[in-house]
Amino acid sequence: MKRFYKTVIVVPADGGHKIQLDGRDIRTPKRSTVVVPSERLATAMADEWAAQEDTIKPEDMHLNRLANTAIDRVATQKDAVVDELVGYAQSDLICYRADHPKELVARQAKEWDPVLDWVRDTFGVDLKTTTGVLHVAQSDQDVQRIKTAIDALDAYEVSGLHALTTGFGSVALALACLREGRDFEACWTASRVDEDFQRDKWGADAEADAVRNALYSELKVADKYLKLLKTL
Q1: Distance CA 193, CA 110 (A)
Q2: Closest CA relative to residue 53, chosen from 5, 19, 93
Q3: What domains appear along the chain, each with residue ranges and CATH number?
Q4: Known SUPFAM superfamilies for this protein (predicted)?
Q5: What local confidence, expressed as pLDDT, does residue 136 receive?
Q6: Cα–Cα distance between 27 and 166 in angstroms, integer?
Q7: What CA–CA distances, in Å, run from 204 to 36, 63, 196?
């Protein structure tokens, strides 16, 4: 789509701030007016619109996409999205450990054990671990506590949490990032332990690195989005 607007501004709205292009409110794909609770987030989203040149590239507007998802999907079917995220707690990346080689076992313990400790201290959840690929069942009580924590978030936060969870393969890491129990870089490193071990052993692959770099950039924006939500 060709760029059709000249001006991009942020204005107050009921419930927060909205963005206008040539005086017209931007809308989601389902035609809802986009209103976000944080002026700083709205400003960053407006910057994405302002940065578009002759052709609008929605794939480069990650903050806007997360806000659209919050409004069009999460707000209208939050229970289903929360259930999807809770499902990650029942098969979380950091609960499935290698039993060899010892170097990988040590890396996993170094990166993942502090996250398990943080989850225990923050939510009272004692996630069980196992070796290999055999499923380890988490207690109903622990799963419910994770659900309660996610239920307490608003649609915008759940949208960002969903992006981090699916990218990390771990709701524990995503919650740690959201709640600032660990910073983004630490969570990213923890989510790539197995991949990095193989990379160190066998060498880099250009195609795999391109996919990895794209995912890193996408998740970094999700982290930025969540931080902007916390500032008015």
Answers
A1: 10
A2: 5
A3: 8-74 (3.30.2180.10), 78-229 (1.10.3580.10)
A4: ATP12-like (SSF160909)
A5: 94
A6: 26
A7: 40, 30, 9
- Give every residue of the chain whose pLDDT is below 70, as ranges: 232
> For residue 123, what pLDDT is reported?
98
User: What pLDDT is stored for residue 231 in this prediction?
Assistant: 82
Cis, peptide link before residue 101, omega less than 30° from 0: yes
pLDDT digits (tens, 9 = 90+) for 86-106: 999 999 999 999 999 999 999
In one-letter notation, the amino acid at residue 179 is R
* Secondary structure, 3-state, the chain: CECCCCCEEEEEECCEEEEEECCEECECCCCCECEECCHHHHHHHHHHHHHCCCECCHHHCHHHHHHHHHHHHHCCCHHHHHHHHHHHHCCCHHHEECCCCHHHHHHHHHHHHHHHHHHHHHHCCCCCCEECCCCCCCCHHHHHHHHHHHHCCCHHHHHHHHHHHHHHCCHHHHHHHHCCCCCHHHHHHHHCHHHHHHHHHHCCCHHHHHHHHHHHHHHHHHHHHHHHHCCC
What pLDDT, on a 0 to 100 scale, did the predictor assign at position 232?
Answer: 65
- CA dihedral (174, 176, 182, 186) in degrees, to 10, reads -30
Q: What is the 3-state secondary structure of 4-70? A: CCCCEEEEEECCEEEEEECCEECECCCCCECEECCHHHHHHHHHHHHHCCCECCHHHCHHHHHHHHH
CB atoms within 10 A of CB 216: 16
